[in-house]
User: Fold this.
Amino acid sequence: MENELAASTRAYAPSERNAERNADRRLAFFLPILFASLALSAAVGCVSTHEATPPSNAIRLGSVLPFSGERAGSGAALETTVRLAIEMVNSAQALGGRPLWLDVRDSHSDDVRGTANALDLINEGEIPFFIGTEEPRIAFAITTAIKTHQMVHLMPGLTSAQFHDPSARAAWFRLSPAVSYLACALAKHMRNDGINKANLVTGPDDYSGAFATMFDRTFTSRGGTVVPNLAVDSGGESFTDLFATLGRLSADATVLVTSPATAATLLQEWAVRGKPGKWYLGPTLNNPELLKNVPRGVLDGVEGISADLGDRAESFDAFFQAQSGVPPLAGAHYYFDAVVLLALALQEAIGLTGQFPSPAVLKDHMLNVTSSGGTAVSFDQIPLALALLAAGERIQYQGAAGYYLLNPLGDSTQNRGMIWKIVGSSFASVDYQQCTPEEVENAGIDYH
Assistant:
């Protein structure tokens, strides 16, 4: 009998047949997104960012996204989002007449290969702005290159790292909620649901590990018991041992934080086994790919958490789908806003000084265009926003993910979590939960 209090971690993985089936499903999911991306420039803007060579006056943005490997579907969807934002900015013919231009490469959902591709792109020396990545270790691995080239690194992904170096002539912005806030919020929600004994099944990535650490601290600080967490990977033999171990641990509920492809395989097996135990899903699983790869109705009623995208999220979803022909991912909103906020901050600097700002000065302009006191402009009013800034007026951007409140470091402080429930082929909002900075600092206890 395993000691439930032992701090052990075991790894389990699906069969090769399941992995191949999921690869086919991921292909079916992201091919329509890819085709939508290829068609986007003709539908939206006047300057194509798909040209083989950028215009000589282009403002170049670099990125690595997962077009292959475990997160393949996400990469195509996020590229579509970035290109939509770029085309909308370029259609306004602002920024001193210079178009934005995207150079994106494959991370392969792999830290080593993705880092190599990112460094190749950065070391070309002609890309002042970098967006992403989805893999936190790549973001850390490229920090020296970001500093050396004095770049601006925008980190909109739900799994983005948090990194700052005040001594550097570079700048970093993290636009999505920090993992600690969402993990804390889910632990609070589950305790309020009457869950007394819990554990997590997590992927091998840093984000899943950080989520588990904060969840455990918060859940236990609020009187709950955490039994050993289990690790799951995407290759191997079977989930049989994992479900057997979960049965022995007898948690009231288990939190799943992994990729949509792995989650789909695991949860289908869970359903075949008669749905033993209760599951909650982490932020990375608010993703159409999960629902596309699991028969409709199988996951009805399963709850999870993701970032609260504000009261304009549904409007952006409809807008995005009308423009691209595909639904957005939950994290895509931040990628769209990253491009727009960069353009707005650049335009404010150009309007005030006639020059493109350094990374440190750009941070001030980024704070300006997200602060209250200016004309409120929405994600679908980008030409108006750029025109107002060109005329020297102040604005406040209300983006695809709502309003932003950035701290002096450049990190978003809008960290509320949305609790959702799967209903058919959608994620329905059912509640909101938020941890204060004091609760995050003190592992879920607010002493005020």
The longest strand covers residues 426-433. The CA atoms of residues 337 and 440 lie 26 Å apart. The chain has 15 helices and 17 strands.
